[in-house]
Amino acid sequence: MDDASAYGAANTTQQRKDAADTIRQLAYYKDNITVHNGDSGNDGIYAPLLGHPSLTGPEIQWGQSADEHDKVLQWRNASHANGHRWVVQPR
Fold this sequence. Notes:
Layout (H helix, E strand, L loop, with lengths): L12 H14 L7 E3 L20 E4 L7 H15 L6 E2 L1
Parallel strand pairs: 1-2, 2-3
């Protein structure tokens, strides 16, 4: 679900994966490498990234709504079910 925003066109899923791979190769330590969903409540960008080995999780910007905790659990559980556990961070 890559959509345009006020900042221009969003990265594609492949661009996100490629960026994570590049950062992983450059990172000296096993740093967290995350993807941010931008300034929207749209978390549809995360599903195609589940299981990508270079990513350690999403950074969810959800406007500190009542849904934020549910979203953290949703993506934590989805990553556990996928076999590549994510650290899920609300922003």
